[in-house]
Amino acid sequence: MTSPQRAPGGFPVVGIIGGGQLARMCAGPAAELSLTLSVLAEAPDAAAAQVIPSAPVGDHTDIDAVLAFAAECDVVTFDHEHVPPHVLDALVAKGVPLHPSPDALHFAQDKLAMRERLTTIGVACPSWERAVDAAEVAAFGDRIGWPVVAKTPRGGYDGKGVRVIDSADDVADWLEQVGRPGALADGVLLEEKVDFVRELAVLIARSPSNQAAAWPVVETVQTDGICTEVLAPAPDLDPDLAAVATAAGLRIAEELGVTGVFAVEMFEVRDPATGAAAYVVNELAMRPHNSGHWSMDGAVTGQFEQHLRAVLDLPLGAPTPREPHTVMANVLGGDYPELYPAYRHIMARDPGLKVHLYGKAVRPGRKIGHVTVSGGDLAELRERAGHAADYLAGVITE
Amino acid sequence: MTSPQRAPGGFPVVGIIGGGQLARMCAGPAAELSLTLSVLAEAPDAAAAQVIPSAPVGDHTDIDAVLAFAAECDVVTFDHEHVPPHVLDALVAKGVPLHPSPDALHFAQDKLAMRERLTTIGVACPSWERAVDAAEVAAFGDRIGWPVVAKTPRGGYDGKGVRVIDSADDVADWLEQVGRPGALADGVLLEEKVDFVRELAVLIARSPSNQAAAWPVVETVQTDGICTEVLAPAPDLDPDLAAVATAAGLRIAEELGVTGVFAVEMFEVRDPATGAAAYVVNELAMRPHNSGHWSMDGAVTGQFEQHLRAVLDLPLGAPTPREPHTVMANVLGGDYPELYPAYRHIMARDPGLKVHLYGKAVRPGRKIGHVTVSGGDLAELRERAGHAADYLAGVITE
């Protein structure tokens, strides 16, 4: 393994476990800040390995590979939340500074632990319960009302590991796995199906010194369980709700000891009695997050730069938006593998578009990139970003 | 030599000859656009080689090394203007698409050729003449008025190869080299010492299809012949002069066949009779240029992204500024080699600052980075950018 090349002047090496698009998008900010990245990549052609010189291939579940990788880094962070606890523990035992820490990551890796902890500290959550058998599932549904949202406590993402169920029969296969090692060892997480107005996300960076910075609350739009569009800031958001939601995000970050960039996905709800706007927390993500991609172009400090600053305990940058609105649209793979001609077309159609692609082969429905546009007219920006994403996906042809 | 790794989907490889900071600053935009870079670097630790996976070491004057490098690239461009004509010719003979072309580059490499060509096409220049002996130098000075600016036609940059002279004696050593191979083979370039109001720069991108985009005209501030500060756009610039200067830049780009990003350094002068603002062209640079670094943070499309789009004949992005003012200050090396503590300090002092460092060892007076700040209050922005640059250089200590 070639050692990562450190920049002269006392600059550190940041290790990232996982070579996906989140690691890849750290490359530009790291180069500008004279920080060296080293990525433990899944394959030589992983998204991040294409653009970062130090990208040894290794398995994030292999303790020896991870320890050898970390030995060359001053601090280690993550492209994803899937590093197993025993590997995290081995890193801590070796004295490797990990951000976020295993204690914090636990709450992103285990949704039951997350619900318990958030409930303890008084953060608004949907009604929830742990169920280990069909009788408990039925009792929760009968009490809260069907349908119910069932989740595997571990291992889910982008809508995977989530079902909307009408009876215990719909999770019979999951209940069989309760008590066995794996995503369902401790049971199934059941949640009230929230009658929400829209989905919001709070994005925060927190450093080991407890400096924190919050971007404006954004609206996220999901299609089939996958985020497809983000509006930054969330349009027409009640200022009181924005303040309360941001405060909740900051509180969670501090209580859970999160370091680095941290996203709280929320539902915006209406109080049935008063009609007042409120939030309940849906999910946590302890890493740069799709809901923050807009900030690369739309804020003074983008989330990838901020994450690097946070994990190194450098002073945080201003999260201030640069323009009244930024719209981000995810680009999903379509049927046609040659993206380059489509990319020329969207660049020609819209010179103000910011295109971000992840170096991934096209597969239908796979997140392969995103686009952003910034300006003053939200409806126009949504049309422009949506058009570009649809055109790249092959959903439209002109 | 490992081949550069191409992104799936039909995306090209852009080769850059030279591994300095200009190549380095292409890394972020290339990653976002899914373009692969390959850099022919001076050394394994060259600025760009630190951040770009494909960075074979080779000499830009070695035909074999350059041809082997170019064979792996779809298009080749430059970090600097120092590739010798016979090497450029060898690339052209092999059918390598070069941007800018050798014919265009000639006018950036040879200041006598540039003055002749600009004069032919009617672009405003200082009074100038070629001198091959002391008598010709004396005659020019006596006619135009002393002092006179003397330049080596080739090989100068950042104030090197430029003298302000009071008599032919001041270039006696240069005159001895006239007629011998080298920077002074064809003589000394003599120019009127322009009584200028300030210095301006026009930055343009032009594609092989003749699409062109111009950023707003900027003011550049030089200290000891080195650019230290750029104000974008040039404050209080006469709109007629802005239009005329931009038109001149676009005309030069087209007449000289320049492709890629192109900078025209100008003097702003006053017509002695009418007092009207006018320009005369000082220098040309056929590559991304220090006067355009502000655009990385301050414009919708930064110059490095635009350069990549231009050399690939992709549609150009919008050069629109994001905020009323952006100030760029160059960071020069000071006496203290450890930059990291100073960098922490300036980040803490100013969360709105954008810091760009080039991975270069500190040497007194060496350009090692730049900072930008954007906003509405020009005087405040100049103070902030200047403070950060001075602090990093060790000129001030608080």
From TrEMBL, chains A, B:
**Which reaction is catalysed here?**
5-amino-1-(5-phospho-beta-D-ribosyl)imidazole + hydrogencarbonate + ATP = 5-carboxyamino-1-(5-phospho-D-ribosyl)imidazole + ADP + phosphate + 2 H(+)
- The answer to whether the entry has keyword Nucleotide-binding is yes
Q: Broadest EC class?
A: ligase
Using the record's annotation, list all stretches that form the ATP-grasp domain. 115-312
Pathway connected to this protein: Purine metabolism; IMP biosynthesis via de novo pathway; 5-amino-1-(5-phospho-D-ribosyl)imidazole-4-carboxylate from 5-amino-1-(5-phospho-D-ribosyl)imidazole (N5-CAIR route): step 1/2
Q: List the keywords (alphabetical).
A: ATP-binding, Ligase, Nucleotide-binding, Purine biosynthesis
SUPFAM superfamilies on file: Glutathione synthetase ATP-binding domain-like, PreATP-grasp domain, Rudiment single hybrid motif
Q: Mention any Pfam family matching this sequence.
A: PurK_C
The record's listing under PROSITE patterns reads:
ATP_GRASP (PS50975)
Q: Where does ATP bind?
A: K111, K151, E191, E192, K193, V194, E199, N282, E283
Q: Which residues form a coiled coil?
A: none
EC number per UniProt: 6.3.4.18
Q: Which HAMAP family match?
A: PurK
Q: What does this protein do?
A: Catalyzes the ATP-dependent conversion of 5-aminoimidazole ribonucleotide (AIR) and HCO(3)(-) to N5-carboxyaminoimidazole ribonucleotide (N5-CAIR).
Its subunit composition reads: Homodimer.
**Family designation:** Belongs to the PurK/PurT family.
Protein name, per record:
N5-carboxyaminoimidazole ribonucleotide synthase
Q: Which species is listed as the source?
A: Pedococcus aerophilus
